[in-house]
Amino acid sequence: MMRAVIARDKVLRMVERAVPVPSGSEVLVKIAYAGVNRADLLQKDGHYPPPAGASDIIGLECSGTIEALGNEAHKFRVGDRVAALLKGGGYSEYVAIDQGCVGKVPDEMKLSEAAAIPEVWTTAYQLVHRIARTRPTDTVLVHAAGSGVGLAAVQLASSTGASVIATARSAAKLEVAMQLGAAAGVKPSWTEETGTRFEVNPVNVILDPVGAKYWDANLHSLATDGRWVVYGSLGGVRVAGVDLGLMLRKRLSIYTTTLRSRSLDYQGALFTEAFNEIVPKIVQGEFKNRIFEQYNLDAAEEAHTCLKDNRNIGKVVLKVGESD
Fold first, then answer.
1. Which among 103, 115, 27, 87 is positioned nearest to 274, based on CA atoms?
2. Are 192 and 214 within 8 A, CB to CB?
3. 163-192 pLDDT, tens per residue?
4. What is the pTM of this model?
5. Cα dist. 146→30, 83, 152, 180, 199 in Å?
6. Is the pLDDT of residue 9 over 80?
7. With the CA atoms of 71, 76, 81 and 83 taken in that order, what torsion angle do they form, in degrees rounded to the nearest 10?
8. Collapsed DSSP state (helix, strand, coil) of residue 15
9. 245-to-99, 191, 251, 252 alpha-carbon distances in Å
10. Strands (E), 201-289
């Protein structure tokens, strides 16, 4: 049996579950650390149920060691240090996952750091490269830039040569974003500046996990042919009085995306591409994978409170098994 964390009545509960048995191309990972994400909070509150067939155990990313292999899993060996992108199951002592969504962690990287890569950096990579198709001539507006995805997106967009403007709730979060590559930082009052800063100097790309609350300001901030990627709805899902005329005049493209609901093949290909490009740059110091706080598995509720209160600047991780 193993310990695992599930959500029941909007509260995290520690339960015992059978250790999964890997089949086919799956590998069994003995989890050392698990990443904590906003999506976990949404699942706890009943707003983001796992896809059909996925585990009800919370958690979308982890690191650890290979414990066992399915009969068609040939990419790894037992004992390999790995990180994995999950549809669920991260807040537990073991998880079985297709080998395509697993990457080998280099010896120079701690497992605590590796656990903060799969969901966050794969999401940011998808936003910056696959969807927004960020170019060196772009100005990119990154909302919630103090979050794990936000800080990753700031670095990825900056690495293309684009100019990045960050928004965040506090001066401390903006300072970190600018240390990691943002050319400028704007507090939440940025929505009041649309008649000056952004309408005079509009942006080409917006990476937006907020949604409805920022709709009008985003609309007025984008340049002609701008690309607007919505990947969350922290500020609501319903928008009243949408101005289609302005959208048409500016020829705007609005994209929406999630990662968890994608096919296993899509997730595996994207994760492998992102992981192989990003991990060496983190090891070399070109990218910074900022861990804000670490909690034990039995303190998962405290970790959720940290995110809910917007205290984190970067990633929060859970210690599940043995330390690095």
1. 103
2. no
3. 999 999 899 999 999 999 999 988 766 666
4. 0.94
5. 30, 23, 9, 11, 24
6. yes
7. -80
8. strand
9. 47, 20, 10, 11
10. 203-208, 222-230, 253-256
| 62 contacts 33 by C-beta, under 8 angstroms | yes
Q: How far apart are CA 313 and CA 164, in angstroms?
A: 18
pLDDT per residue as tens digits for the range 119-172: 999 999 999 999 999 999 999 999 999 999 999 999 999 999 999 999 998 999
Phi and psi at 287, nearest 5°, equal -110, 150
Q: Spell out where 130-243 has E strands.
A: 139-142, 163-167, 184-186, 203-208, 222-230
| pLDDT, position 161 | 98
Locate the DSSP E strands across the chain: 2-8, 11-17, 26-36, 61-69, 81-85, 94-98, 102-104, 139-142, 163-167, 184-186, 203-208, 222-230, 253-256, 291-296, 315-319
